[in-house]
Design a protein that fits this description.
Blueprint (H helix, E strand, L loop, with lengths): L9 H6 L6 E6 L14 H10 E13 L4 H11 L4 E7 H4 L5 E8 L7 H10 L4 E5 H8 L13
Parallel strand pairs: 1-2
Antiparallel strand pairs: 2-4, 3-4, 3-5
Length: 154
């Protein structure tokens, strides 16, 4: 997806985008060091999914601090829409030991993420990373609930 125009909001841009348009959507949306409420809900994620082709991928940069509550909620939100989700990042970050960034990847096709290749690539980084997927991601997200437009008050 091209960058929204000056003054154009990402959510507004998505609602006018035709379905099945993109192979990849990357989101790194922050205002004053926080992800705005209206771009972290199930409804926003559903709009992203609508614009992706069936094998398309959504990548989301998340900035968080221990105990990674925001990331856990965002993963639960992605899982409410997408069939396959994983989290990549610095191992210390994934263990909730430091502040930083994580990348969430999602696709509508079950088993559609190349998690093996992603895990190997993460290990090769100068600061070895890790990947949470399937059961490990279930444990990471345990108890977190997806956020909707109606209940997002944070």
């Amino acid at each position: 997806m091209a960058h929204p125009g000056v003054g154009e909001d990402a959510r507004d841009a998505l609602t006018t985008t035709p379905a099945d348009r993109y192979d990849l959507v990357i989101a790194d949306i922050y205002r004053a060091a926080r992800m705005p409420r209206h771009v972290r809900t199930v409804e926003f994620v559903a709009e992203v999914a609508r614009t992706l082709r069936p094998d398309g991928t959504y990548l989301l940069n998340v900035t968080d601090l221990p105990p990674l509550v925001g990331t856990r909620v965002q993963v639960a939100t992605l899982r409410a829409v997408f069939a396959d989700v994983c989290v990549l990042g610095d191992r210390r970050m994934l263990r909730g030991r430091r502040y930083g960034n994580l990348v969430l990847a999602a696709t509508s096709r079950p088993g559609g993420l190349p998690v093996g290749r992603l895990a190997v690539a993460a290990l090769r980084d100068p600061v070895p990373g890790g990947l949470l997927h399937a059961g490990a991601l279930d444990t990471f997200v345990a108890g977190a609930q997806p956020v909707t437009d109606a209940d997002d008050q944070r």
